[in-house]
Amino acid sequence: xxxxxxxxxxxxxxxxxxxxxxxxxxxxxxxxxxxxxxxxxxxxxxxxxxxxxxxxxxxxxxxxxxxxxxxxxxxxxxxxxxxxxxxxxxxxxxxxxxxxxxxxxxxxxxxxxxxxxxxxxxxxxxxxxxxxxxxxxxxxxxxxxxxxxxxxxxxxxxxxxxxxxxxxxxxxxxxxxxxxxxxxxxxxxxxxxxxxxxxxxxxxxxxxxxxxxxxxxxxxxxxxxxxxxxxxxxxxxxxxxxxxxxxxxxxxxxxxxxxxxxxxxxxxxxxxxxxxxxxxxxxxxxxxxxxxxxxxxxxxxxxxxxxxxxxxxxxxxxxxxxxxxxxxxxxxxxxxxxxxxxxxxxxxxxxxxxxx
Length: 356
Fold this sequence. Notes:
The protein starts with 8 loop residues before the first helix and ends with a helix. The protein has helices at 9-32, 57-60, 68-89, 91-120, 134-147, 167-179, 187-206, 240-256, 265-274, 284-309, 349-355; strands at 152-155, 160-163. 53% of the residues lie in helices and 2% in strands. By secondary structure, the protein is mainly alpha-helical.
């Protein structure tokens, strides 16, 4: 019997929509292709000059891929990354994250292309197609950097070892290089940059966190104040101080405009280790309970081991039962077995005959 794939509902829907829209877009482009101009499908993919009358394209364009290479990467990203995040965050939180990670970068990229058209006068900017799962790919990497910041990935049999927070910048570099080729459009670079800082801002300040019930935390926690998820942690060590000072100034401006809310001292303390699990980590209360149970079992095992290794005290004789005394004749050549708690003694009859 073939193994059954256990795919959560939101991830399953994403895969179905990705396959359907990509195949539909490919079929339409194939039928209308003439070899002279690129064919666009403005009611599926977002085209600044043509898609304003199709507002749903600001969302649907994320699940439209134009070639086999990007389609394969999109499928792998959603299948593995979507399953992991949906199980970690619940389907509702994962759906909210998808809307933010897809909609806002598409809107910002739309604005960037319109601005470039206004500055340069080049009509090609407004005819550039904004599509693909690139915002989701970079957003998933940012989310992994929050959930497993200290995890190290080893590549090429140990030759290259990278921590998870290093992968978003590598992904941005790869998209930039591919945008110089026909594989990706120029809009891809705007998508990956916007997806990076939008997803980090949402996870840092706005996403509902899972409260640690053992630490008496509020059920309305939002964001992640941990130092391991600071913006500078995505960059190499030599430039971290510069990035940290710049991001702090930007944060002060956002706080002044009431776009972001500064963390309280309790939030910062909770993320520094006063709580065992990082705030926002799924199942932290359950993990804390499991940790305490393991410690209790370890302490109990140590006590039992110490009691077993200590000098054994002689066992008190069993209490005698009142009644007539019965004497047994000792049997020769019979080795008396060691007395055990709850053991009954049995002497074979044939041994008694041999003794006479």
